[in-house]
Amino acid sequence: MIPLRDSIPPSSVPFVNYAIIAICVLAFFAQASSNDSGNEIVERYGMVPARLTHPNEVIVMTVQETIQTPTGPLIREREHELASPGVPAWLTLLTCMFLHGGFMHFAGNMWFLHIFGDNVEDRFGHVGYALMYVGTGVIAGLSHLVTNVSSPIPTIGASGAIAGVMGAYLVLYPHSRVQAFMPPIFNFVLPAPIFLGIWFVIQTFSGLSSLGTSESTGVAWWAHIGGFVAGVVLAFVIRNSSLGRPEVTRRRSFDHYQD
To answer: Domains in the chain, start-ordered, CATH in brackets?
Structure first.
């Protein structure tokens, strides 16, 4: 399901949300314009669990490469030593949030952040939202770390932090609705708790299914789960204290999409 818009218009300009998207755009273009399609950038600034848990060891991972033989292409595995980190290992918990593994990964994350981030920034305030985004992103990274302590695979993406934004949205706007699209033709409106709840159930089921298996999917399910739960907790704090801004009461109408 792809969210198209929600029923809550922002009450202020979401400067921080725009800034986060802009940083991710610049990082994506840096990856795309590099000679090796961004592989070295990912290795230097992605969060590698083994690098945090074994800081004094050289990190080696198994990679696949295609070679041409007289009988045709052959895929073989070889050992690859990761590039040295560009920042202290613990800081990659932050830098990894702004890197992505391809255009669809990047575009999907930025779209979800565009849909839900402005409303959460309304309630947290600009500074509070920046701190919440970074905090849930770090918790997401740690959630992946504790479930993959020896993994040499770099972890990248804003998904964990955006999951935190979605968890916060669920708590702060329980009466919101989301217009969604399910390819190829289905266009419908769902209550936001159902849309976000379905998303979280999928992450949880996938995360539980991945325990004890090899990292073959390339998806950090537990980062999504950890970020979402962190966002829920922080939103409860904001909603039930004087730290946050008042609730936005304006609503968009979806009536003309429901003929």
So the answer is: 2-58+86-257 (1.20.1540.10)
Q: Three-state DSSP class for 222?
A: helix
Residue 165's contacts (CB-CB under 8 Å, 6 or more residues apart) are 112, 113, 116, 117, 120, 132, 133, 136, 231
Whether residue 227 contacts residue 139, with contact meaning beta carbons closer than 8 Å, is answered with yes
- Claim: this prediction has a pTM higher than 0.85: yes
ω into 85 cis (within 30 of 0): no
What gap in Å lies between CA 229 and CA 71, rounded to an integer?
A: 52
Q: What's the pLDDT tens digit per position in 223-258?
A: 999 999 999 999 999 988 878 787 777 777 665 443
* 100: nearest Cα among 205, 20, 177: 20
Distance CA 142, CA 6 (A): 30
Under 8 Å CB-to-CB from 157, ≥6 apart: which residues? Answer: 96, 97, 99, 100, 101, 105, 109, 220, 223
Q: List phi, psi (to 5°) of 44.
A: -85, -30
What DSSP character marks residue 158?
S
